[in-house]
Specification:
Helix content is about 25%, strand content about 15%. The protein is α/β, with parallel strands linked by helices. The chain has one domain: Rhodanese-like domain (Oxidized Rhodanese, domain 1, 3-Layer(aba) Sandwich).
């Protein structure tokens, strides 16, 4: 996404604070353990629920929704970085995931 800072899954710092903006069913199927979940449509109304971080790393399934969220949050003065490739890249890199039900994770 043009003008939005982006980082690859491989370059994410170990202490990165992640915001997952996917829908509830996507989150339940598989997410990064420790990430905060706020669906994209709820982000403007739930700014107070966002974790304090500088920067805040934003994820979705492929990087499109998270890019829009990062652009909007940056416009609000919240330092945000899009995680390129999102959960698809995370899974491809073999990074650990959790599922809400404890069942096998799905992206």
């Amino acid at each position: 996404m043009t003008g939005v800072p982006e980082i690859s899954v491989q370059d994410l710092p170990a202490d990165a604070v992640l915001l997952d903006v996917r829908e509830q069913d996507e989150w339940d199927a598989g997410h990064v353990d420790g990430a905060v979940h706020v669906p994209l449509s709820e982000v403007p109304a739930r700014l107070g629920d966002l974790p304090e971080a500088d920067p805040l790393y934003i994820m979705c399934r492929s990087g499109n929704r998270s890019g829009r969220a990062a652009a909007w949050l940056n416009a609000q003065g919240i330092d945000s970085v899009n995680v390129a490739g999102g959960m698809k890249a995370w899974a491809f890199a073999g990074k650990p995931m959790a599922a809400a039900s404890g069942s096998p994770t799905v992206i």
